[in-house]
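Support reply, case 0932

Customer input (verbatim):
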Amino acid sequence: MVSLWNQNIKRASRPLTEQINEYMERLQKKYKLVLDYASKLDRLSELFARENIIVRRFEPQSWVNHSIIHDFMDCIGLELTDDFQLPSEMANPSLNLNCAEIKRILNKNDLFSTSELHYLASFLKELSKEYPDTDCGMLSAEETRTLLAKYAAGNKRVAEEYIRDGKPLFSDDVSELPKWEVKDADMYESTVHYFSMAIAKLHKDNESLKKEIAELKKTTAGIQKSQSLLAKLKHPVSSLFK
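Our regenerated output:
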């Protein structure tokens, strides 16, 4: 749920503007099948037959070698050899919670184009790498338990009927970290960092463009001088009297 919210917040095309609680309420009403894995798998079973469906847990501790890439390769029966180039870093990292809130506010401005939102989000991604969330979560422990309880029966059936290894679908461990709030000091610092990064990048780009323009002017001047010289060479007699 939180991952879906973060993904929809950070995208540039039709980005989300809702806060997490608003998003959760709408998703559970309008898009119940997104979270109801049992019902979703039952529908797929009607089309492809249950024995043709492979269900894997989306938890790092359950993946082969704790890697989703290794797990996927194992799932489709391929061995991970040196022919496969693994990414050096995560290709689609989440925004930290302060950066997600900054992006959510930016999303509400209809004046930004998709490309402009993409440009602004690039700084938030860099900032999130430097300041990962370690002391809070998007949901409180109680909110997480309530959400898990709502889908517990379906998740149990998924484990029993589709995975069939005698283990629960997901771990019952819930982080006891406090719920994230807009903290003045943290948000103030994140905002300052964000805009300073954006302005510094603009300054760097402007300086680079200035150098390119200066080089182009030199090149243009050289071309004009060469053209003038060629014109004189084409009229050597008239050149003698100038």
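We compared this against your earlier run and they match. Two observations from our side: The radius of gyration is 28 Å. The mean pLDDT is 85. Please reopen the case if you see a mismatch on your end.
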